[in-house]
Amino acid sequence: MSTPLPLMKLHHVSRVTTRLEQAIAFYRDVLGFAEIPRPNFDFRGAWLFNYGLQIHLIDKSTGGGAEETINSRSNHIAFATDDIDAVERALVAHGIEYKENFQARNPGVKQLFFQDPDGFHIEVGKYPA
C-alpha cells in the first residue's frame, strides 16, 4: 500500500479569466477577498486572500470553457457559512443569479450555487457542525 502525499491544506485556487477587473471586483466585493502582493509575472493577474485561502486570477484574453448555466455538479470551490440567509440576501443585493439546493439525506444543509464573471462555479453552504 502506498503512502498518501503529505499535504497540509488547500493553499489556493487558480482561475483563468477573460474579465480580470470584473473578477477582482467579484471576489473582493461579493466574496470578501482582499488583494495581496503578487510576483511580477510577465502576464496580468491578481492574487487575493481571505478565509485562509488564496484565489489566483490569471488574465487570458481568449478562450474560456466555463459553463453557461449554474450546475451544482460542475467543478467548483466551496465555502462554509453559519448564516446562509445572509449569503442569499447578499447575492440578491449584488444581482447575482443563484440556485439553492437542500440535501434530502442531510436535513438542515442548504447550499447556494452561483458563478463568477467567467462562469466558474462557487458553492456556499451551511453544514452541520
Describe it for me?
This protein has 129 residues and is an alpha/beta fold. The protein contains 2 helices and 8 strands; from the N terminus they run E-H-E-E-E-E-H-E-E-E. The mean pLDDT is 85. The radius of gyration is 16 Å and the shape is globular. A hairpin with a 5-residue loop joins strand 7 (110-115) and strand 8 (121-126). A 4-stranded mixed sheet has the order 1-4-3-2, covered by helices on one side. Helices cover 16% and strands 34% of the residues.
What descriptors fit this protein?
129 residues, alpha/beta, 4-stranded mixed β-sheet, 2 helices, globular
Give the oligomeric state.
single chain
User: Total strand count, please?
Assistant: 8
Instruction: Give, in order, the helices and strands.
Output: EHEEEEHEEE
Beta-strand share of residues = 25-35%
Q: What structural class do helix, strand and pairing data support?
A: alpha/beta
Biggest pleated-sheet summary: 4 strands, mixed
Low-confidence stretches: none
- Across the major sheet, the strand order is 1-4-3-2
Quick one: overall form?
globular
Mean pLDDT: 85
Q: How far from one another are the termini?
A: 33 Å
Radius of gyration: 16 Å
Number of helices: 2
Helix content class = 10-25%
Per-chain topology:
Blueprint: E1 12-17, H1 20-30, E2 34-36, E3 45-50, E4 53-59, E5 76-80, H2 84-93, E6 98-102, E7 110-115, E8 121-126
Parallel strand pairs: 1-4, 5-8
Antiparallel strand pairs: 2-3, 3-4, 6-7, 7-8
